[in-house]
From TrEMBL:
PANTHER family: GLUCOSAMINE-6-PHOSPHATE ISOMERASE (PTHR11280:SF5). Pathway: Amino-sugar metabolism; N-acetylneuraminate degradation; D-fructose 6-phosphate from N-acetylneuraminate: step 5/5. Catalyzes the reversible isomerization-deamination of glucosamine 6-phosphate (GlcN6P) to form fructose 6-phosphate (Fru6P) and ammonium ion. Belongs to the glucosamine/galactosamine-6-phosphate isomerase family. NagB subfamily. The keyword Membrane does not apply. It comes from Bacillus kandeliae. This is Glucosamine-6-phosphate deaminase. The active site is at D67, N136, H138, E143. CDD domains: GlcN6P_deaminase. Pfam families: Glucosamine_iso. Keywords: Carbohydrate metabolism, Hydrolase. Its EC number is 3.5.99.6.
Length: 242
């Protein structure tokens, strides 16, 4: 596990963007695993900026997002589909047909989970997976207790996750109770993983992660078993702010 310590959110976002841009340039057909939430917003801004200024192209890139809420229509501004369109896809030259998120709207949920696994497999597997981390150590929406051998599945969101995400909704009641998420094994199958963490809300999660203990009670700890993980973490998340 490689740890890159950075000063703040801005530097975290820049470093993450540099890493992704270098990979896209090296392999124009990159399969990129993406996350939503506040953490990668700055990364996406930097990718858009670089696309506009330097012309980095995503025409052959395939993207696979980690997760989606169950029960929110795609058009809802809180769906992760809408998030990705608004924060990245509409502003770079990635082809809409090459952008993928699991669907939270399918009636046959287990068929959708299997189809998403198959889609990733057919794309050739994820080359680089971007992750944030939940305060409880979740990656994707794999909440504490999720088996390390899990594939894409439906999960009940933890109360703490719903509370953390309530900031985007009008009320806590509006936050969906379930999500569809890549499993831990799906994430671990990525060739390279980049986890981003910024801010004091992540201090406990980062300290647990860096303690090195590997347990399903703390999902992100699985990353210690992966051969190519980079953590880009700022001083606030490391509790190093003076
Ligand atoms: C989002 C995701 C989640 C978030 C995590 C942190 O697709 O999979 O694991 O990365 O909940 O969220 P933020 O970045 O909003 O603190």
């Amino acid at each position: 596990m490689k740890i890159i310590k950075v000063k703040d959110y801005q530097e975290m976002s820049q470093k993450a963007a540099e890493l992704i841009i270098a990979q896209v340039k090296k392999n124009p057909k990159l399969v990129l695993g993406l996350a939503t939430g506040s953490t990668p917003e700055g990364l996406y801004k930097n990718l858009i900026e670089d696309h506009r200024s330097n012309g980095t192209t995503y025409k052959q890139v395939t993207t696979c997002n980690l997760d989606e809420y169950i029960g929110l229509p795609k058009e809802d501004h809180n769906s992760y589909y809408a998030f990705m369109k608004g924060h990245l896809f509409d502003h770079i030259d990635v082809l809409a047909e090459n952008t993928n998120l699991p669907s939270g709207e399918k009636e046959d949920r287990s068929a959708e989970c299997a189809a998403y696994e198959a889609l990733i497999h057919e794309a050739g597997g994820i080359d680089v997976q971007v992750l944030g981390i939940g305060g409880n150590g979740h990656i994707g929406f794999n909440e504490p207790g999720t088996p390390f051998d899990s594939l894409t599945h439906i999960i009940e969101l933890d109360a703490s996750t719903r509370e953390a995400n309530a900031r985007f909704f009008n009320s806590l009641e509006e936050v969906p109770t379930q999500a569809i998420t890549m499993g831990i094994q799906t994430i671990m199958s990525a060739k390279e993983i980049v986890l981003l963490a910024s801010g004091t809300a992540k201090v406990e999660a980062i300290s647990k992660l860096l303690s090195g203990e590997i347990t399903e009670a703390f999902p992100a700890s699985c990353l210690h078993q992966h051969p190519n993980v980079t953590i880009i973490v700022d001083e606030a998340a490391l509790n190093e702010n003076k």
